[in-house]
Amino acid sequence: MTISALVVIVVLGSHIGELLNDRISTAINVANFHDNMEVKWFLTGGVKNSITYAIQMDEASQMANMLNIQPNWSYEVDTQATNTAENFVNFSKWVKTLDKEPKIVVVTSSFHHKRAQKMFELVDDSLDITWELGDATCSYCARDEIHHMRNVQSDISKALAK
To answer: pTM for the full model?
Structure first.
């Protein structure tokens, strides 16, 4: 059997273990739903700071280690992105290298969706994507999102300049 349809699952990293686990679990459920398609994973998340680096590996590699690779799966690990804007800039460049047009599913947390969607649209509004959202949260995540929303345009500009 030849698999001709392609789905790309983009999983945004997190330095918070519970969120990272929730996102990759959500993404695995998406992949299992597409068992009759070729699945390419784009796992994105680097090391946020030197303190993080001293105690853990980058987020994308952590997610790759959580996958039980299936025969129709392959993955790309983006360890350079250190924020959501960079996640999407790097993804936008990578997806354009594919030899066929994929169905794109982006996986993140519910609390992060609004900002992530705004950033994705600013980075590349030519791509048609769907979203799958994990439910895990943290005590300060909603408050942080309010702060981060103010910096969307600045974050995009910095990511595009890299």
So the answer is: 0.91
